[in-house]
Amino acid sequence: MSFTFSCECGRVLRAGGGTAGRKAKCPACQRVLTIPAPPVELAAAEAPAAMPDAEAGAPGAKCPQCRKAIAADAVVCVFCGFNVVTRRQAGTSGVGLGPAASAMSPTVKRIVAGAVIVVVLGAAWVFVGAPLFGGWKLGEAQQAFLRGDLPAALERLERLRVASADERGDVELLYKQVTLEIEKNQGQTLHEGWPVPSDRAEMVVEPLERPSEPGVLFRVTIRNKGKTPLVLKQSHFYVRGTRDIKDVASHTANTIEGVVVAPGQSNKGIIAFRAMPTRGVGSIDVVGGTYYLTFNNGDVYMKLKLPF
Length: 308
Known about the structure:
The chain is an alpha+beta fold. Among the domains are: 108-184, no CATH class; 193-305, Sandwich (Immunoglobulin-like).
């Protein structure tokens, strides 16, 4: 029974039975070799399948693993690393893996796994983490605004304008509102409750009876003196004291959201508050027991006394 063995140069040679110990010359490198003893026969259940001559280095051979053409005297496939003599994957003790997976070293596999983790974490941040983080920071700025701490609100909003792509419209609106509030409502205007008119709009406020749902309701009429339409939102209205601010509450009676006021025209809607600013010495509500309603859309600012 013939068997194969390899020369040091990599050429696969075939010898017949009973030739062990004889001398033979490698036709590739001309080295004189001693023919080794044939391998011990494996049990029938464990014996590897017979290797066709066409796959063992015959002319026009193909790698039995990846099926790519290889040199006739090749021992290891240069494409996938499969050893055509031992029928094992180079660097492994078992049957070869797939061409792409088996050619990947452990280091490369770790790099690929790490890259996949980075991509997954990045996607999680973009679609989940960043919106939540941005919303939380915007909430901090809104709370600072309602506490009357306008410098702190402005500082947080300036950071959000640079870092947050989410809720950019809300950030920009509040940034402009805080900037206008600081500019228009200072000194005696704030502490003595002076009204602040606008040359681009007028506001009239009428108190309404309290509904069954707790709250303070007003019918607000806005006249547009400008040249472009005004689109009214709940977030444009709030009541300011010297120590804190109350914004329009989520209330079933609110109808102001989305009301459009055309140039030269008037339109109206209802706004509701859960409470008025905190009473205290120095607050504007102490003077005559009044509060002052502000309209501030980041562009148009006006403030007037609420009729109670």
